Amino acid sequence: MRVAIAGGGLAGLACAKYLADAGHTPIVLESRDVLGGLVAAWKDEDGDWYETGLHVFFGAYPNMLQLMDELGIGDRLQWKEHTLIFNQPEKPGVLSRFDVPDIPAPFNVIMSIIRNNDMLTWEQKLRFAVGLLPAIVRGQNYVEAMDRYSLLEWLQRQGVDERVNSDIFVAASKALTFINPDDVSATVPLTALNRFLQERYGSKVAFLDGAPPERLCQPMVDHVAERGGEVLLKKPLKQILLNDDGTVKGFLIRGLDGMPDEVITADAYVSAMPVDVMKVLMPQPWQELEFFKKMQPLEGVPVINLHLWFDRKLTDVDQLLFSRSPLLSVYADMSNTCKEYANPNCSMLELVLAPAKDWIDKSDEEILAATLAELQKLMPHHFGDENPAKLLKSKVVKTPRSVYTAAPGSQACRPDQTTPIANFFLAGSYTMQRYLGSMEGAVLSGKLAAQAVCRQHSASEVSPAVNPDPVQVPS
Ligand SMILES: Cc1cc2nc3c(=O)[nH]c(=O)nc-3n(C[C@H](O)[C@H](O)[C@H](O)COP(=O)(O)OP(=O)(O)OC[C@H]3O[C@@H](n4cnc5c(N)ncnc54)[C@H](O)[C@@H]3O)c2cc1C
Questions:
Q1: Distance from the CA of 37 to the center of ligand 1, in angstroms?
Q2: What does the mean pLDDT of the chain come to?
Q3: What is the pLDDT of residue 163?
Q4: Residue 402 Cβ < 6 Å to ligand 1
Q5: Cα dist from 426 to 268, 307, 433, 453, whole Å
């Protein structure tokens, strides 16, 4: 079966990979000249990489880890020490660590919180633990039901001290969703926390050993091509063409560089495009259907990724850092954390600016100046009057609409991978799966979409009386 997939981000590529494994022929149509979508990266004039986002992988990413193992690239993840490191705004330049001991979950995480005495008092820790109990004991159903509250509302309802919010959850919320606890659905951080509390290595962090398009996306392209599929760049979907019965007749692809538009036909069609694009390209007759109508409130959230190259080493920390700055979210010295970006003498800091809604329209110069001012608070010893660190160059990458905005109530808007249209499917981290707007969520959504395509195909091809072997897509 030939399957056309619009979108060459992680969801579209994973979908193609699993369809190819199941013996089908995927054709991925990516609008840009680079693979990866939100993990896309480019080389500057000096050959240095810059990226759409600073990306880390977690131990609690089973589908991503399985995918990488299946591709034979599991060793490209550089696992770091099991610890979470926070800046302390009230003690500029001083870091606070939550070292997670190598004992079973959830005792490892609890121990890391008990042992950290920089950030919370005993009373705050106790009230935090009591407040969290329902989420731990009552499980994911309770966590899903909490989607009606913002994280801040939920914390207040649970009687958790405001210090826990300002010390831990502002940083966690910004890191996971690029928005603050008063804007984010309580379901999101509680889901992540539950995973971390249930899996021994769930909160352990890894960095990819190089740029995602080459080190993660290209192996999927090769895998698909070896099995007869194709991944094509500069093929933007312009229109979804319909048959009289509302099913898809073809994908109309905009011709670029003077080429005419073309129609790609297939047996099944998948959108692995961002939700904002899917909403714009949604055929008019589908807009009346409840399934598609409920997606309407979903919207990508703005975020900015900065790269700063310095004339010296600013830190030897080989880990993700939570800045706890009002302007910034997480950051890392990629010259320490990533093999391909390694430099023993000079730092390359990659920093995420979030929430970015008030910054996304500002000039690169303004964004850079504000970031450098924050950096002086995070690392004051490098920016004093005497011989301050010199910025050699910088790159600002703005994404006005990235992952879906995880506002309260958004869980109900996230669509399934199977749609009411018999030959049309959805993939993308915004679609319903339990890993939220993440790389893991994107990969899982692609796998679920591939499974849905295979199920539909076997149901329509084979009469139930024949009782066929089900098509095997690894779950
Ligand atoms: C700054 C930043 C930091 C992040 N950090 C992390 C992290 O540390 N850990 C983590 O797990 N996740 C992180 N994420 C989230 C993660 O990157 C995404 O959830 C994931 O990559 C989304 O993949 P996707 O395939 O669902 O969507 P996308 O990556 O958005 O892919 C959609 C694709 O569709 C293409 N497309 C758009 N329009 C068309 C069209 N008309 N025709 C054809 N193709 C089209 C796009 O070009 C794109 O390639 C981060 C994201 C950002 C922006």
A1: 4
A2: 94
A3: 84
A4: yes
A5: 11, 33, 12, 10
Q: Which two tokens stand for residue 79?
A: 């696992």
Residue ID of nearest Cα to ligand 1 atom 49? 37
Distance 52 CA to ligand 1 centre (A): 9
pLDDT of residue 461: 65
pTM > 0.85? yes
325 lines ligand 1 (CB under 6 A): no
Atom of ligand 1 nearest to the CA of 441: 19
Answer yes or no: is pLDDT of 460 > 80: no
391 Cα to the center of ligand 1, angstroms: 29
Ligand 1 within 6 A of 212 CB? no
Among 9, 132, 54, 457, smallest CA distance to 267 is for: 457
60 lines ligand 1 (CB under 6 A): no
Sheet (strand 268-271) strand order: 230-232, 25-29, 2-6, 268-271, 424-426
Smallest CA-to-CA distance from 9 within 464, 447, 442 is with 442
**HSE-CB for 413 with a 13 A CA cutoff:** 21
Q: Is the pLDDT of residue 440 over 90?
A: yes
Cα gap 40→35, rounded to integer Å: 6
415: its two tokens: 């669509």
Distance between CA atoms of residues 65 and 106, nearest Å: 21
Angle at 26 between CA 21 and CA 31, to 5 degrees: 135
Q: How many CB atoms lie within 10 A of CB 339?
A: 12
- Spatial distance between the Cα atoms of 11 and 429, rounded to a whole number of angstroms: 7
Which phi and psi angles does 92 have, rounded to 5°?
Answer: -55, 130
Report whether 150 contacts 185 (CB < 8 A).
Answer: yes
Q: What are residue 184's phi and psi, to 5 degrees?
A: -95, 145
For tokens 């899996």, the residue is 199
> In angstroms, what is the span from residue 329 Cα to ligand 1's centroid?
18
DSSP 3-state of 36:
strand
CA of 328 to the centre of ligand 1 (A): 20
Please determine, for residue 399, whether its predicted confidence score (pLDDT) is greater than 50. Answer: yes
CA atoms within 13 Å, Cβ hemisphere of 144:
11
> 101-146, pLDDT tens digit by residue?
999 998 998 889 888 888 888 888 888 888 888 888 888 889 999 9
- Who has greater pLDDT, 179 or 166? 179
Helix ranges (H only) for 167-313 are 170-177, 187-198, 212, 218-226, 275-281, 284-287, 290-293
